[in-house]
Amino acid sequence: MVLPVVAIVGRPNVGKSTLFNRIINERLAIVEDEPGVTRDRNYAPAEWMGHKFDLIDTGGITWEDGRIEEEIRAQAEIAIEEADVIVMLTSVVNGVTDLDERVAQLLYKTKKPVILAVNKADNPEQRANIYDFYSLGLGDPIPVSGSHGTGIGDLLDEIIAKFPEEKDNKSDDTISFSVIGRPNVGKSSIVNKLLGENRVIVANEEGTTRDAIDTPFTDDEGDKFRLIDTAGIRRRGKVYEKTEKYSVMRALSAIERSDVVCLVLDASTGIREQDKRVAGYAHEAGRGIIIVVNKWDMPKKNSGSAKDFEQVIRQEFQYLDYAPILFVSAKTGQRLDQIPKMVKRVNKNQTQRIQSSVLNDLLFEASKLVPTPMIKGKRLRVYYMTQVATNPPTFVVFVNDPELMHFSYERFLINQLRDNFDFTGTPIKVIARKRK
Ligand code: GDP
Ligand code: GDP
Question: Which PANTHER family does the record cross-reference, listed alphabetically (predicted)?
Answer without folding.
Answer: GTPASE DER
